[in-house]
Amino acid sequence: MPELPEVETTLRGIRPALLNRRIADITVRNPALRIPVGDRIKVARGRVINGLRRRAKYLLIDTPAPAGAKSGAEGGLMIHLGMSGSLRICAANAPTRKHDHVDLVLEGGTVLRFNDPRRFGIFTWWDAPAESHPLIRDLGPEPLGEAFTGTYLYRRSRGLRVSVKNFLMNARVVVGVGNIYASEALHLAGIHPVRAAGRIAEPRYVALAEATRSVLENAIRQGGTTLRDFTAPDSQPGYFAQELQVYDRAGAPCYRCGAPIRKRVIGQRSSYYCLGCQT
DNA sequence: CCGGACGCCTGTCGGC
DNA sequence: TGCCGACAGGCGTCCG
């Protein structure tokens, strides 16, 4: 489900309810997530949340060690929404729904509730610094940061025969771009998704970097994309779905040139593009 | 190293 | 109506 805009929307939605609050408890109803939720996560009890961040599609909740703790007790929580995860802010006594696997209970009775039908998500404890965590260590630059440029993409792609769509979705190249926004960015940049990454000229990568940034920023502005069941922590859907140019529009006319949108599987993922606009 | 296939898990939808 | 396969927004691992 969630790509960078949905994770960013989630982060912004949970921040006000969590910042500077003390964690009273963590309730685990089903520990069988992608990484099993272990007892270790209980060290979060009693700590105060002093920061919330996003790195790639990971949400990081910072909790400094309590006063008097031994050195090396830094750490925090890492949440990943996987394919079907979502977070909700609710009252501790709100009835649980199906697939509500973990509660982060705050002092005062507010709860951050993690729901994830497919359980590809993660809710775990990390020891500082998060940047060196195995899941985060080798990730590429943020697409909305300064390091992400057309020149970077051009240099990084030399010699590669993989399709440009798979290249753009590779988190070691750039993070946060999933199946929806890769299709959208390539359409905006006018690049055919199966073109070999290593055979695309620098000016086209400049256009692609710009298009990627633009699509992601617009999607964040709309609160993300709700296709089926994504909702922000206040249960609101994202409205970028109505601005999608190609994703999930197979057979429908391209808004720009009128040609029918094509659908094709690339790297085991459905991909959408317009033959009139993308070469 | 690179690129492609597979599996993790549940829910939904279309065709017969 | 029921069944069955295909497919779904991610990503680590394994293999050639």
What does this structure look like?
The structure is a single chain. This protein is of the alpha+beta class and 279 residues long. The chain contains five helices and ten strands. The chain has helices spanning 4-18, 150-157, 164-169, 179-189, 202-221; strands at residues 23-28, 51-55, 58-63, 75-80, 86-91, 100-106, 110-115, 122-127, 262-266, 269-273. The strands form three sheets. Strands 1-6-7-5 form a four-stranded antiparallel sheet, with helices on one face. Strands 2-3-4-8 form a four-stranded antiparallel sheet, with helices on one face. A two-stranded antiparallel sheet has the order 9-10. The two termini are 28 Å apart. The protein binds a DNA duplex (16 and 16 nucleotides) through helix 4.
Low-confidence stretches: none
Radius of gyration: 20 Å
Please report the distance between the alpha carbons of the first and last residues. Answer: 28 Å
Work out the strand percent.
15-25%
Shape: globular
- How many individual helices? 5
Q: What string, H for helix and E for strand, traces the elements in order?
A: HEEEEEEEEHHHHEE
Strand order of the largest sheet: 1-6-7-5
- Helix fraction? 10-25%
Query: What is the strand tally?
Result: 10
Class derived from helix and strand content: alpha+beta
